[in-house]
Design a protein that fits this description.
single chain, mainly alpha, 5 helices, 0% strand
Amino acid sequence: MSQHKGKIITALVLLFVVFYAIAVYWSIEPARFDVVQNAKQQAQLRNEKPVTGYVTTSTLITVSDTLLTKSGGYLSNDVLPPSVIMDNMPAWEYGALEMVRDLALSMRKDFSRSQSQSTEHEALKKAQP
């Protein structure tokens, strides 16, 4: 019976170590980036000329993409370990998500309806929610 208990304890410790290693890896924040340089690179890749608002828009796209493609993916909605016991990365994700939501809403409500325009931009209408 004690051999059986020893195997169970060993398995639990090994599982804890594996979960801990995964949690540490998933907790690494994505690298910071220069928003102007990022916009220049995006414009060059798309053969576009940066115009007013290009830096803001490319930053919004990059941050949104980072939320989905970072190590571990989007952890805030996970229901299994190790992500459910993590707090720093889900908090970081929440902050980034709030920034994305606020900026997309502002672009939809304020920027796309500037001056005398009363119709909203269809792409922003789709992107904001």
